[in-house]
Amino acid sequence: MPYQIDLDSFKGPLDLLLHLIRKNEMDIYDIPIAEITAQYLATIEAMKSLNLDVAGEFLVMAATLLHIKSRLLLPRDSEEAPEELELDPRAELVQRLLEYQKYIDAAVSLDALPVLGRDVFVRSNAALEEDESEEAEWEPVGLFELVAAFRDLVQDNAEESFHEVDRERLSVTDRINQILAALADRSSLAFGELLAGVVSRSEVVVTFLAMLELVKMRLARLMQNGRGGPIWLYAVEGVGDSCQVQDESLGYC
Amino acid sequence: MSPLVTADPKAIIEGLLLVADGPVRPVHIAEVLEVEPAQALALLQELQAEYDSAGRGFALHSVDGGFQLRTRPEHAEWLRRFRKSRPFRFSRAALETLAIVAYRQPVTRAEIDYLRGVDSGGVVRTLLDKRLIRILGKKDVPGKPLIYGTSREFLELFGLQDLTGLPTLKEFNDLPPDMLSAMDLPPEEQKILEDPSPS
Fold this sequence. Notes:
Oligomer: heterodimer
Order of helices and strands of chain B: HHHEEHHEHHEEHHH
Largest sheet of chain A: 4 strands, antiparallel
Shape of chain A: elongated
Largest interface: A-B, 47 and 49 residues
Number of helices of chain A: 8
Strand order of the largest sheet of chain A: 1-3-4-2
Strand content of chain B: 5-15%
Number of strands of chain A: 4
Order of helices and strands of chain A: HHHHEHHEHHEE
Structural class of chain B: alpha+beta
Structural class of chain A: mainly alpha
Strand content of chain A: 5-15%
Number of helices of chain B: 10
Distance between the termini of chain A: 53 Å
């Protein structure tokens, strides 16, 4: 491999081109197209040899480079459209690169601003205000918090050790419809409430799956009052008791 | 300010700022104090100057058309320790996309993709989920693509009063003239580029 390049770090063909220009200390306004095309193609080859999927965008850029190169090689036809400005075939590419560079710089200066929660902080909500007020900041629940909540639930409902065959099984679909019915009465349910009266671990799992299905079907949203706060299940606007979920719509029952 | 004639209005405002949940607009303060908005604004600016000159641990930042007490960036390390939080980092893709939306809004997905040279669908969705950008509407061109802009949360996150407070974009005016002719910036962008006022 002729170039030592961290392939993962390239955000796209423009990024790669800018990197090659910087690395070779090329003049961006006078890019040696033959040279950069060779290096660009070599990088793509390297990506292929590492079995990386070369995204289509990289190939489009390769074609663009070759096209520019061929236009530079061809003699200019002075009779054809003499009024048209004789644009450098590289101009459009250079413009895109400069535009992109501009937003890379802009991204850096954005990052340098005093970011709330990273560089500057505001007073955290005093405990007294953490009642049921609508003003409280609700934020979507992240995957890890969900997993943690689930782990807590399963631990709280450790499998009991006696053997008893119990055929009365609750399907995910039934549970979904139960939750939907509950949500029709009240617009929100606390995560813990969902499991009121649930004893066995399998019921916990079924409930959890039902909840995830609801979120996936966009019938409900999981929100949390600040990081680490209790998780709430919210009905999505317009979901009422008219909603009934059929067994067939799920992969299991 | 009839009923409050004995109290120092600046001290009252200080209290309001302390308990406020977000940036407080001068109009809101004017309503509470029963004074003119201009007077509320002047008092807020006085407070701002006082905090700065006294070197307090907090400052009165102008954010999203309002005022908010925020800690000083140079104390970030101690505050993070206190909060037991690690400094979060934006991904490059997120920052680039955010920058493009911020400076070029209203902007379509296709324009973002073109500028970045890569598909930006995932990043755009993440930024929408985090409510840093929002859908402004649909562009009246074939396909009616959605157009995006930044949100108030964006201004709050980066501590900006409004979009004119964005850092100035670097200009590429050192281009040779023959290449400059190829640069056909849309007029509205030029306006944004030339109109950055110091924050």
